[in-house]
């Protein structure tokens, strides 16, 4: 069994899932929280959508939620999205996309993503090529005390690792050969060395102390962002993880600078629309400048479809759309009339609470008037609403004088809700009918 089969459940535990009766409300709450920038909500809702727990199973939605979480710095979201690409959940399996997401999470010290990346890379290796595991320990050259937060890199293989509190670091499975290794840590001199593969599974890196650093003195990060082909990328948002106020935007040559960066092991996040985000790990020394060369891979973005609505110039000129936005009265446009399958305009009136027809039988060919819930006087006389056709008051307020196909829109206002230019002296209300032009 492949190692990622049940990985999402292990990555983020959900202790209390909603019942089916709460599914719709749960979906609304999680989506709203995600839209408001809560990456944890995006992650949890993505997992729920992927496995179909509490909400309907929806791989496409799960991918979108994981992508949002990933692009906003939630590394588990990157890992889960990579898992879906690797497994082919929601579409054909895409190892390259999976590898890109695992790399993002692994660069942010998400160990499970690093393991998955190693596994995925092993699948692409020539079966005749043997690889060897390399693990090591980083320590002080004088005291042999374990050193954590040391960045160990093999630039040739684009491999890196960060030592844990015990000074242990893993570089994964490496092909046979001799490679240059660099080691960097706050307060220590940079170290360049060679590593032999296989040459034994374990290695030791001893680092010499630098002069006592002035921890009150900040460092700087200067860098350049390019595409895989070497072309510069402008407008990349570069931020220091955990200190989002420290940010810069790359210029047309892809260059950027971050000043006043706190010394130590630093993660820099690089994001731009149309490119897969990356997190780079580097060591910043007090009073010194750390260089960063970052390559962003283009990423296809599925944009929401664009809907174009052509408004009626006739209705626009007569204020129909403006009144519709005010939320007063009831409006029926051409789309409503077609959707409701209306045979007589008077049928629209029956859909308005409180308003009725003068003849409840509503027979074809018979005149029909809109009757307001108000009364004209104490005599209980029916309160007939005025009818305006194309803005002109009609002496006979028969609603059915035109067939529905001739009508562009209908507006109904009762009592004081009528627009001022049509209110007149009739307290019953009005019907505005607009014919097609």
What does this structure look like?
There is one protein chain. This protein is of the alpha+beta class. The chain has four domains: 117 residues, Tetratricopeptide repeat domain (Serine Threonine Protein Phosphatase 5, Tetratricopeptide repeat); 77 residues, Immunoglobulin-like (Sandwich), CATH 2.60.40; 77 residues, Immunoglobulin-like (Sandwich); 123 residues, Ferric Hydroxamate Uptake Protein, Chain A, domain 1 (Beta Complex). The protein contains twelve helices and 22 strands. The strands form six sheets. A five-stranded mixed β-sheet has the order 15-21-22-19-20. The chain has a four-stranded antiparallel β-sheet with strand order 3-2-5-6, with no helix packed on it. The protein has a four-stranded antiparallel β-sheet with strand order 10-9-12-13. A hairpin with a 6-residue loop joins strand 17 and strand 18. The longest helix is centred in the first third of the chain and has 13 residues. It is elongated and about 105 Å long. The N terminus is likely disordered.
Using brief descriptors, characterize the structure shown.
437 residues; alpha+beta; Immunoglobulin-like; 30% strand; elongated
Structural class, please?
alpha+beta
CATH first level of the largest domain = Mainly Beta
User: Could you estimate the helical fraction of the residues in percent?
Assistant: 10-25%
CATH superfamily of the largest domain: TonB-dependent receptor, plug domain
In spatial order, strands of the major sheet run 15-21-22-19-20
Helix count from the secondary structure assignment = 12
- How many structural domains in the coordinates? 4
Biggest beta-sheet profile: 5 strands, mixed
CATH topology description of the largest domain: Ferric Hydroxamate Uptake Protein, Chain A, domain 1
